[in-house]
Amino acid sequence: MTRGRLITLEGGEGAGKSSAVEAIRGWLISKGRQVVVTREPGGTPVAEKIRHLLLDPATGDLAPMSELLLMFAARAENLDKVIRPALAAGQDVICDRFTDASLAYQGGGRQLGAEPVLALADIVHPDLQADLTLVLDVPVAIGMARVHQRGEDSNRFEQTRSDFLERVRLAYLEQAQRLPERYAIVDAAQDMGTVRRSIIDQLEERLA
Ligand code: TYD
């Protein structure tokens, strides 16, 4: 059986990942694929508990390295219980954030640098990387305006300062520049219909 494909979705806060997941899922299903959708941190009962700890503003300050290790603890669970079994069964997996988020948020935002993140990726999933990573790129001010418009309580990362979020954005753009075969950048400042069409164009070009 051929392994399914791992498609990951990335972007800063308020980039519109939820509607993008639905667009990707719809496209894959239209191609006759079986699709599993998961998210990080999270995706399994234990990983969702770790997510709660990581996102809850009441958690307060975490040492950046603790934050990174918790992200990878959750990732190891999601890989073991959800991602690897699905790929092995020939299903495609859409993962709402993956290791590139650790590179951007902990490596860039928290300024740990890429090295510890790449070292952990090498331990936790040496044999596996995304087949396609879509980065929904949006200027920080626009993304944060959308987050505030949603009116939900903001999570621990949405409460960070804008210079943190600028570093996150820059880290994504740098990664995309370094690995153009795996990354596709989508301008997510456009309206939802246009963003959706750009995503489908990228899927047609790279996965069809
Ligand atoms: P997010 O994906 O934005 O969820 P929602 O759409 O429900 O707001 O929330 C996950 C948060 O976790 C996001 O702020 C980025 C952060 N994150 C990291 O800092 N490192 C990681 O490795 C991952 C997977 C997420």
Structure description:
This protein is an alpha/beta fold and 208 residues long. The protein has a single domain (6-206), classed as Rossmann fold, CATH 3.40.50.300. The protein has eight helices and five strands. It has helices at 17-30, 45-55, 64-88, 99-109, 114-124, 140-150, 162-178, 192-206; strands at 6-11, 35-39, 92-96, 132-137, 183-187. A five-stranded parallel sheet has the order 2-3-1-4-5, with helices on both faces. Bound molecules: thymidine-5'-diphosphate (TYD). Residues 13, 17, 40-41, 55, 71, 96-97, 101-102, 105-106, 155, 157 line the site of thymidine-5'-diphosphate (TYD). Thymidine-5'-diphosphate binds next to helix 4.
Low-pLDDT residue spans:
none
Structural class: alpha/beta
CATH superfamily annotation: P-loop containing nucleotide triphosphate hydrolases
Largest beta-sheet details: 5 strands, parallel
User: Number of folding domains?
Assistant: 1
The hetero molecules present are: thymidine-5'-diphosphate
CATH topology: Rossmann fold
Number of strands: 5
Main traits of this protein?
208 residues, alpha/beta, Rossmann fold, 8 helices, 5 strands, binds thymidine-5'-diphosphate
Task: Give a topology summary.
Blueprint: E1 6-11, H1 17-30, E2 35-39, H2 45-55, H3 64-88, E3 92-96, H4 99-109, H5 114-124, E4 132-137, H6 140-150, H7 162-178, E5 183-187, H8 192-206
Parallel strand pairs: 1-3, 1-4, 2-3, 4-5
The structure holds thymidine-5'-diphosphate.
